[in-house]
């Protein structure tokens, strides 16, 4: 806040404050920020407990001699809520305090974990109750995930977001490599009940870290969006956003082919002449080690090749690894291929996540991340089923080779579908700019279409530039909430052009203003630079009579004689 000027001029001026040191961006630089560091460590314990618990859950299903369908239902119960609910929970994360949304979901997950633990100690845990508990935990996870992903930018400055996303991926891979071993040891020494109890304590540490995380909340100038309204806004944004459309397309295609690695790895280990559970563990460990080693190179590779280039190179290398795994049965080839596959896997997924984090504005970030997660998990689920079926008809080696070929073809076909490297998504405008008209009009803000017209005066020599600027302007308006958009030429007044767009309601129009970013301002500035008038372009805002009827408490449908 600016301080008042002192009336006295005799005192010397205060020396200028020394500029705050700028922390150099590196792979480990996010650890310099206490909030991220504490949450990362707590999340490591939570992930270790989750993977240890997965071993105990699989053991219970096995010892109960459950059918293959029952075994499959564990995966369905764990995955279905994340796919079905993520867009809805993304709306919550974009409109409410993400820390509170995470805590609500985490407490639900903890309640499910405690329920499993109590049943296990009482000897009442069997496959049906286990599946029901896993489903409850998965609902909590669906609530947490979009808010968790979007909150990374609140824990570290924007320049360090890419490294923070990468470190979270490393966290997951370290836990995936170590957690099952901890679960196996504790299962053999003390039984499944104590593994479930360990998971509750580990997850409790993450809840504690989120609970003590304090930060400045962004000011919200408009009421939260309703669920359906928020879903429609996310779909509309995705339809007219190059970033989200390309990320969803490429991530789904990648997951569809690359899923063969995870789906067929147990079969590959089993069919080897030295095949055993120990070999499968070593193979999983190689993937984890490769992911950890590759994380050190992702930031430099992205700086050198760009996000799209890194994704293409890593996916092509993974395609070669799948071919190598399918065409050879030699462990001296398989393990280097698995190490490289782990590096490629983390490179692709971390880059997709970082792209959405940096190139999507904050008002829709959680929903965009939820849609990306739905696309990648949808590809992985469909691909796992497809490659499992093909393995039964053409063998594991043939299915892996086919997956490698398909991934290589996908990389070639989508190579030109490139993502922007930089979009300034910093919020710009304030919704209060349009509030005087709202206060004076006295109409219902939730009903009645709004028609906005912007009148430009364009000289003849500027027409090609106007047509060139029309496409990004149309995308901007539709992406931020307009239902329809057109650019019209006035046939009676030479050089007059009108941009006209429809918005669902006055409240949605206020949201459009509030969603403006610096990148959007650049688009508008490019168009307004073509305006030849002495005065700024004339803007007129018109609201449907239905809004007046709603505000005055009557309807023309009830009083047709008023027509």
From TrEMBL:
Coiled-coil segments: none
Annotated membrane topology: Multi-pass membrane protein
Compartments reported by the entry: Cell membrane
GO MF annotations in UniProt: transmembrane transporter activity
Domain of life: Bacteria
Segments traversing the membrane: 38-61, 67-89, 101-122, 128-148, 185-211, 246-265, 277-298, 305-325, 331-350, 370-390, 396-415
All copies of domain Major facilitator superfamily (MFS) profile, residue ranges: 35-420
Keyword set, alphabetical order: Cell membrane, Membrane, Transmembrane, Transmembrane helix, Transport
InterPro entries found in the cross-reference section: MFS_dom, MFS_trans_sf, TM_effector
Principal location: membrane
SUPFAM superfamilies: MFS general substrate transporter (SSF103473)
Entry GO CC: plasma membrane
Stored Pfam families: MFS_3
Name under which the protein is recorded: Major facilitator protein
Organism: Achromobacter arsenitoxydans SY8
Lineage: Bacteria, Pseudomonadati, Pseudomonadota, Betaproteobacteria, Burkholderiales
């Amino acid at each position: 806040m600016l301080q008042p000027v002192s009336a006295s001029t005799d005192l010397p001026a205060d020396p200028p404050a020394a500029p705050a040191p700028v922390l150099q961006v590196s792979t480990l630089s996010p650890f310099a920020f206490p909030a991220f560091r504490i949450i990362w460590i707590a999340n490591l314990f939570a992930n270790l407990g989750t993977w240890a618990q997965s071993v105990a859950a699989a053991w219970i299903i096995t010892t109960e001699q459950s059918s293959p369908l029952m075994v499959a239902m564990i995966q369905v119960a764990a995955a279905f809520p994340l796919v079905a609910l993520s867009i809805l929970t993304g709306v919550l994360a974009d409109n409410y305090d993400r820390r509170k949304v995470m805590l609500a979901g985490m407490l639900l997950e903890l309640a499910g974990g405690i329920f499993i633990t109590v049943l296990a100690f009482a000897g009442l845990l069997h496959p049906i109750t286990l599946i029901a508990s896993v489903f409850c935990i998965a609902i909590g996870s669906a609530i947490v995930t979009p808010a968790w992903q979007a909150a990374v930018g609140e824990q570290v400055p924007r320049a360090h977001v890419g490294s923070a996303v990468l470190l979270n991926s490393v966290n997951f891979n370290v836990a995936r490599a170590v957690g099952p071993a901890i679960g196996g040891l504790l299962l053999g020494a003390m039984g499944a009940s104590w593994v479930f109890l360990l998971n509750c304590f580990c997850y409790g540490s993450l809840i504690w870290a989120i609970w003590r995380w304090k930060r400045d909340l962004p000011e919200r100038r408009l009421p939260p969006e309703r669920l359906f309204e928020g879903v429609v806004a996310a779909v509309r944004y995705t339809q007219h956003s190059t970033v989200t459309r390309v990320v969803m397309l490429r991530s789904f295609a990648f997951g569809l082919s690359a899923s063969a690695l995870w789906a067929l790895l147990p079969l590959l280990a089993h069919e080897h002449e030295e095949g055993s559970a120990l070999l499968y563990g070593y193979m999983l460990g190689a993937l984890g080690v490769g992911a950890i080693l590759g994380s050190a190179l992702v930031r430099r590779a992205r700086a050198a090749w760009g996000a799209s280039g890194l994704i293409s190179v890593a996916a092509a290398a993974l395609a070669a690894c799948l071919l190598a795994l399918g065409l050879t049965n030699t462990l001296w080839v398989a393990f280097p291929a698995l190490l490289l596959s782990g590096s490629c896997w983390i490179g692709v997924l971390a880059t997709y996540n970082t792209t959405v984090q940096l190139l999507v504005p904050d008002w829709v970030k959680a929903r965009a991340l939820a849609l990306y997660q739905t696309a990648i998990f949808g590809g992985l689920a469909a691909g796992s089923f497809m490659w499992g079926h093909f393995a039964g008809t053409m063998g594991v080696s043939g299915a892996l080779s086919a997956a490698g070929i398909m991934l290589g073809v996908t990389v070639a076909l989508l190579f030109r579908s490139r993502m922007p490297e930089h979009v300034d998504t910093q919020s710009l405008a304030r919704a209060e700019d349009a509030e005087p008209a709202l206060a004076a009009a006295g109409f219902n803000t939730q009903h009645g279409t709004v028609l906005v017209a912007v009148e430009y005066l364009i000289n003849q020599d500027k027409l090609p530039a106007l047509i060139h600027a029309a496409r990004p302007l149309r995308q901007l308006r539709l992406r931020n909430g307009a239902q329809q958009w057109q650019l019209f030429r006035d046939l009676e007044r030479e050089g007059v052009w009108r941009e006209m767009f429809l918005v669902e309601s006055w409240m949605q129009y206020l949201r459009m203003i509030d969603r403006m970013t610096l990148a959007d301002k650049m688009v508008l500035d490019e168009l307004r630079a073509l305006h030849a008038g002495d005065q700024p372009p004339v803007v007129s805002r018109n609201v449907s009579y239905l809004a007046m009827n709603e505000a005055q408490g009557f309807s023309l449908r009830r009083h047709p004689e008023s027509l």
